[in-house]
Amino acid sequence: MKIKSLLLIAFLTFGNILSQNIKSPSEFLGYEIGSRFTRHHKVVEYFKYVSNTLSNVKLEKYGETNEHRPLYLSYISSQENINNLENIRKTNLSQTGIINGNSDNKTAIVWLSYNVHGNEASSTEASMLTIYELVTTKKSWLENTVIIMDPCINPDGRDRYVNWFNQVKSTPFNITQDAKEHHEPWPGGRPNHYLFDLNRDWAWATQIETQQRIKIYNKWMPHIHVDFHEQGINSPYYFAPAAEPFHEIITDWQRDFQTQIGKNHANYFDKEGWLYFTKESFDLLYPSYGDTYPTFMGAIGMTYEQAGHGRAGLGIQTDEGEVLTLKDRALHHMTTGLSTVEISSRNAEKLNSEFKKFFKNKNLEYKSFVLKNDNEDKINRLIDLLDTHEIKYEYAIKGTIKGYRFNTEKEEKFTTSNGDLVIHTNQPKGKMVKVLFEPKAKLSDSLTYDITAWSLPYAHGFDAIASKTKVSSIESKTVKSITNTIDKSAYAYISKWNSLEDATFLGALLQQNITPRFSEKIFSLEGKTYDPGTLIILRNDNRTTDFDEKLNKIANKHQRKIEPVATGFVDSGLDFGSYSVKPINKQKIALLSGKGASSLSFGEIWHFFETELKYPLTILNSDYFSKTKFSKYDVIIIPNGYYSNVLHKTTLDKLSTFVSAGGTLIVIGNALNSFADKKGYSLKSKESKKDSTKYNLTPYADQERKNIQNLITGAIFKSKVDVTHPLAFGYKSDYFSLKLSGTSFNYLENGINVAYFDKDTENVSGYAGSRALKNIPESLLFGEEQKGRGSIIYMVDNPLFRSFWHNGKLFLANAVFLLNSNTLK
After folding, report:
1. pTM of this prediction?
2. C or N: which end of the chain has fewer Cβ atoms within 10 Å?
3. Any alpha helices (H) in 494-627, and if so which ranges?
4. How confident is residue 690, by pLDDT bands cut at 50, 70 and 90?
5. Burial letters for 176-192: b for 16+ Cβ neighbours within 10 Å, e otherwise?
C-alpha cells in the first residue's frame, strides 16, 4: 500500500513537472503569438504536441473539410477526469434522458469553439494561448471541469484568409486603413469551401463541417458553449449577456448565468481598462447560431466578439486613433475563454442541476407536430435532419386530430394516415423541436440580428398540423427498397417529378447520355394518372443496345421507381408523340461569381449543383463576364448581388441576344435590380409609398426602430402558384416563400407570373416592417419573360436560402431542365 502511494506521488510529481516544462505556443512555433498568423497545420501540430506531452490532454480527430484539412477536438481536464472521460460523458447524457443510467454528474463540461469565420482569425491564435494557460497556471479549475476545445471550426476559410494575408502584407505591417493588407479580395476568408456561413448552419447542418461537429456535440451535450468571433475594427469587445429578443424557451437560469459570466469577464477587463459592451446587437432567437443552438440544447450558449475581422491584419489604426493589434485581439479572447472556464468550475454543481431541469418538457404548448406523408422524398429529407440532431420521431395511426394547420393558418381537423410523420415535444430535445417546428416564433423585440421565421414545415413544404394534445403514433414503419426490373418490350419508362431527388435522377440520366422527355399535361395510362412534369423515357430516343440495363442501374441507385409501359397511346391527355411531351437535352450551365456577386448566394448555387443535383456547371468570373461567349451555354445563372459595374448596357444587350437565341437566364434576388426598368426588359420595380410628412421629425433615439419599418427580416409569406407552368411542376397551388427584403416588383405585363403574391397576402410568420408590408400584395415572386426562343426567369426571393429552404429547390431545377431544353442549340 505504501509503495502504491509512493508511486502515485511520483506520478503526480512527474506530471506536474511536465506541465511546467511544456513549451508555450511561442516557444513551439518559433515566434510570438500575434506577430504573424499561424496556418492551420501548425495549429494542429501544437495541439498534437500538447496531447502527446501531457496525459491529461486528449486529442480527437472528428472529421475533415471539403479541402481535406483535419478537424480536431482537444479534451483538457484533470488526470482523473481524463481517465474517467467516457463515464463522465455518459453520466452527463443520462441527465438529459437521452440515455439511461446514473445522472449524478458534478463535472462541468465547457466547449470552446474558435474561428467559425475564417477571417476572424485571432481566436485560433487565442486557442493555443488558452490551452497552454489551462495546463500550466489554471490546473485547479480542471479538477471538476472538462474543457472541449475546437481550435478551428473552419480551416478552409482560415487558410484562405491567412494565405492571402501572408502574400500581401507589408513588413513591418502597415496600420493605415487604406493599405492592401486590410482589404480582402472576393470572396474573403469568412465562409467555408462552398462559401457558406458556418455560424448560420448549426441547425440546418447542410455543410460537412457542421454534420461532423454535430455528431460529437450530441455525444457530449455540454453545459457551456462559447463561439469566438470578431467584428468591425472600431467596436469594443462584446460578451454576454445577450440582447433581446431571447427565445421564450430560454430559462431564467440561462439568462441569469449569462449575466454572471459577463460580470466575471468584466472584472478582468476593468482591471486592464479594456472597453466592452453587453446586452446589445447579438440576440438569442434564430436557432442556427453557435450560441442559440447550444442554448436550445440546454447549454449556456454565448457569442464573444473581438474587434478586428478580416480588415485588422496584424495591426490597424482605428477611427479613434488607437492601434489594434493581433496580439491584443488574441489576449482578449484568451481572457474571456479562461474566465468562462473559471466561473464554470466555481458553479459546476449548479450547472449540472439546472442543465438537468432544462430537459423536462411536459409543459410545452404543442405536444405533437404531424406532417402529411404525401411525398416520400420530402419525408426522408426531414428524417435525415432529425437523425442528425438525434431528435426522435414516430409515425401516425390513421385517424382524425385537431390543431393549428400550417397551410391554412387556422385551427382545423386533420385526417392522419399511416406513415405521416409525428414529432412529439415530450422527449429530451423537445424544446429544440418546439423551436424548429413552431408556426411562429414569439418576438419580444423586432430588432433582431437575423431572420425571424424558419419553421420546418414551411421550409420543407409540408401540409402539417401542430396539436396541443399528444397524437397517437407508432415507433416504426416498414421501409421498402426500390428494385426495378428490365422490360425489353417496354415502349417507354415513366418516372414521377415532384422532388429534388427526381431532379438528381434526371441529371444522372443526362450525364449518361440518356434523353428523357417530360409531359406538360396531366395524362393517364394503364389505369394510372401522371402529373405534369412526369418523366417519359422513350426507347425511340435512346437507341443503344444497353439502354434498359443502363437506365435500370441509374434508377436503382437513385431509388426511383420507373414504370415500363407498352404504348405511347394514352387513355386520357396527350400521347407521347405530342409536342407537349418535350425532350430534355443535356444542359450546359454557367454560374456567375466574383465582384458584385453575393458570395453566399453563389456558394448556395455551387453547393446545390455539386452536392445535391450532382450536375456539372461552369463558374464564370465577373472580371471577364462581359467578354464571355454566352452562346457556349444553355443556361446562365446570376446569383443575388449588386452588379452595377458588371451588368452595364453592353452586357445586358449581349444577354438579351443570348436569351433570344434560345438560352435561359436565371436571375436571383437583388440581381433583379440590374434588369428592372431597363429598356428591353419587362421587369418593373414596385415603388414604395412615400411618407405623408415632408420632414423627418422622429427623435434620434427612435431612428433605428423607424428604419426597420422598411425591412423584412426573414419572414414567411404565402404565394399563389400557376401549376400549369413548367417552372412550377411538382408544386401545389400555394407556396410559402421566405422573404428577405422589402424590395418588390410589379406583376410582369409581358411575361408569365408563375408565382405571385395576391392582394390579400399577409405575412405568415416573422417580422415584416409596416411600410415594407404594403409593397408585398400584388407583387411578383417567380416569373418568366419570354424573348425570342428563350426566356428570363426572375426569382425575387432566393429559393435556396442557406440550403435549408428545401421547398424552393425544385423551382431552380425546373428552370434549368424544363425550360428551353427541348432543342439542341
Report:
1. 0.95
2. N
3. 500-511, 547-557, 599-607
4. low
5. eeeeebbebeebbbbbb
Q: What DSSP character marks residue 142?
A: G
Tally the C-alpha atoms within 13 A of residue 554's C-alpha that lie toward its C-beta: 24
Neighbours of 742 (CB within 10 A): 21
Enclosing H/E stretch for 651: helix 649-660
- Non-local (6+) Cβ contacts of 404 within 8 A are 366, 410, 411, 439, 465, 466
Number of H helices, E strands in the chain: 22, 36
- What count of other Cβ atoms lies within 10 Å of the Cβ of residue 679? 8
Identify whether the C-beta of residue 57 lies closer than 8 Å to the C-beta of residue 76.
yes
Using CA of residue 57, residue 58, residue 62, residue 68, what is the dihedral sign?
positive
In single-letter form, the type of residue at position 345 comes to: S
For the record, the C-alpha cell of 91 comes out as: 453520466
- Per-residue pLDDT tens over the stretch 82-128: 999 999 999 999 999 999 988 888 999 999 999 999 999 999 999 99
DSSP, collapsed to helix, strand or coil, labels residue 805 as: coil
pLDDT digits (tens, 9 = 90+) for 784-801: 999 999 999 999 999 999
One-letter amino acid of 150:
D
Nearest partner of 518 among 490, 544, 496, judged by Cα: 496
Give me the domains of the chain, ranges plus CATH numbers. 2-358 (3.40.630.10), 368-474 (no CATH), 492-583 (3.30.70), 589-685+707-817 (3.40.50.880)
Say how far apart CA 309 and CA 305 lie, in whole Å.
Answer: 10
C-alpha span between 404 and 719 (Å, rounded)? 19
Picking from 824, 823, 810, the residue whose alpha carbon sits closest to that of residue 532 is 810
- The Cα 379–Cα 456 span in angstroms is 12
Q: What is the dihedral of CA 409, 410, 412, 417, to 10 degrees?
A: 10
Beta-strand runs (E) in 680-816 = 715-721, 734-739, 752-757, 763-765, 779-787, 790-795
DSSP code for 726: G
**Beta strand 473-474 pairing with 394-396:** antiparallel
C-alpha cell at 36: 504573424
